[in-house]
Amino acid sequence: MNFKKWTMLTALAVAQVAAVAPVGAEATTTTVQSTDSVSGQQAQANVAESGVQNSSGGQDSTGTPNSTTTSDNTGVTNDPLSGLPTDTTNGSNVSSDVYGDGTITNPGGSPTSMGANQLILYLNSAKMEQNGQVYTATQPMTVKDGVSYVAIRSLVSRVGLQFSYDTATKETVITQGTNVLRFKTDSKVYTVNGEARQMKGPAFQQKNVFMVPLTSITQALNIPYTVNNTTKQVIMDLNQKPKASFTVQQKDIYAGETQVTYLTKESSPTGLPIVNQRWEGKQDVFQEPGTYVVTYSVLDSAGNWSDPYSVTITVKPPNQPPVALFTTDKKEYKMGEKITITDLSTDDENAITKRDWVNKKLAFFEPGDVTITLTVTDKHGATGTVSQTIKITNELLYNEDDFNKIFTPYGDKYSADGSQVPTMATIPVTSTSSPRLLIRANSPERVFQDGIVYQETGSGSTRILVHHVNETGRDVKMYVIATNNNITPANINVENSGFAGPSEFATAAGKVSIQRYFQSMLDGSKRSSTVLNPGESRVILQDLNAQKIKQKQVISLLSDLYTDQPIQYTVVVLDANADPLTALPTLAKLPKDGIHNRGTYANSDISLNYTEEVGKTAQRIVLGDNKVDPNLLGTDGLDGSSASNAGNFGVVYKVKLDHVAPYSLIAFNPRGGEYAGYAMVNNQVVGIPTNGSVQAPNEMSVLYRTGHIEESVEMYFTAAAGSNLPVSVVVMPLPPIKN
């Protein structure tokens, strides 16, 4: 066999092997760096670009003679100029963008001279020029269906990209720094950093070489290029600048005080390392107030500087401590005379965050000099202090008990002789109830495992009370799941709702939930409607499950709903990462703890009305004692046992006193222990008390006072979870007003 025939047979065998395996096919994802043989002796010497064979045998066809252009069955001839489309109207070279979205420049101009770090491609030619060197691509740049294609691996090494093949997804992967492009054969869709994009035409195999539209690379990687129609050149500008930016960590900067922290961010679109940086106007501490421009630039390893990035910094004058200042309406007071204090403190930024008083009282009941001190603190921790001394004379205006009844503000508390309260006559109110079903989930109060803590079906007006402590030792969430077991859609309307927590303190959670419940009654902020299809389950009252509940934290929820059909409500506790609807069929019903209450109770809206005059003598209304105010009776929705609603938690009382005498005090006195909650009196939400709690039996929290004329008073009250019952609402005459 002569040498010529042996050579032809060898070439044929290699071509057949290459045709079987897809380009870049590998057992695993392997990064491939194409290499180019470059002659450093002749600036214009043609050099064939070498293909790199991978583990499965796929490779770019190489070995094209340096002096010829590869032709294939797409109609590309050896003349690199003959494939350029022409304008059939005038016969001249096209001035439209057959390359797909590039900028048309120099449509009839002279050949383009090569700039620094440019890559020049030739239409219908395998020739590529870069930095004075000539390379030969594995396939010529090809126009197919009006779209210009390039051999992707030939472009990789020239543009500074990385090439790999993902056998799991059968995708060709191109990587540049943090940018990742993925292509599939015969698909117009490719992804850029996971985002699907549309190409001008589908990727395809040509002579076992993977071909993609040129613009899929240039657009995804923001590589600018121009087109010279005379020389049939596409000139890609690879001088992509790095990017620089920074932020200043401190929101407020004060001259001579603030140590400024600059948080920089740099990147190279081509993945080049950043080797240097340059600052203008940067100071770690600005000594003078004013406006400063700070500029930041970075340099990559190719010698490219980024565009300068500037931030304007406003430097404020040095922080001035706040000025504490107050006045009293007098300098001398009788014992039991009201002291009016006006706080006039100021801060240069209006940022006083804390006020600490010493001897700030409404009155004093012993004679002598009293020094009142105020310390104010701004947001920077700077303080200012001022003191004033007033004189208390030997003359008595009010004793302490009378003074407290007359002057204690609404929502504040005062000390009283609680032993007198049980001796007061009860107001003979008329009690009527409304058909609102109460679903109370409070046992087991301390939840030690996932499960269903309560389940009940309600229709029409319904109230749900949930109060629990997480004792599982991990983060959980609680949910109320509504299920429509009817054959027709059901409407669920949320009317009022108050949620609080997660909190470390049961009394705090219960108190705030009642405040928010009453506030929602006033402003309607929690009203919503939803339709539940037949057989559908859905999480409702989502304030409850909005946050994770950590170990020993407490949540408290009180919500009113209305449905036009029976709805099954299920209250569950679950691991914080579990799906409640998926887990629901497998959850166990948790047993009650034998201490706290759960149950379903009818008629939980109670109206207490009295049409005669009150306030001439001290009288009281007793709530939650199971005597004057009996517990609601019901059943346990989980085990069917009878239930008694101890304390009547979840019952909403509407107290209507039609004739309250002038100069009457309405106050709240706990009888069963510590209490912290809210009431709504004449459409005003009032704390019991606003700050902290009120102790039984010797503290009173002020709810309301009438003025110089008789008034009608309407009060809403519901017991706050975590507090103690029973309680008394006391109506009594005020002491005589003195001048």
TrEMBL record:
Region (Disordered): 31-111
Alphabetized SUPFAM superfamilies for the sequence: Copper amine oxidase, domain N, PKD domain
Signal sequence segment: 1-27
GO CC annotations on file: DNA-directed RNA polymerase complex
Regions of compositional bias (Low complexity) in chain numbering: 31-42
InterPro entries: Cu_amine_oxidase-like_N (IPR012854), Ig-like_fold (IPR013783), Mao_N_sf (IPR036582), PKD_dom_sf (IPR035986)
UniProt xrefs under Pfam families: Cu_amine_oxidN1
UniProt domain Copper amine oxidase-like N-terminal: residue ranges: 131-235
This protein's name: DNA-directed RNA polymerase subunit beta
Species assigned in the record: Paenibacillus kribbensis
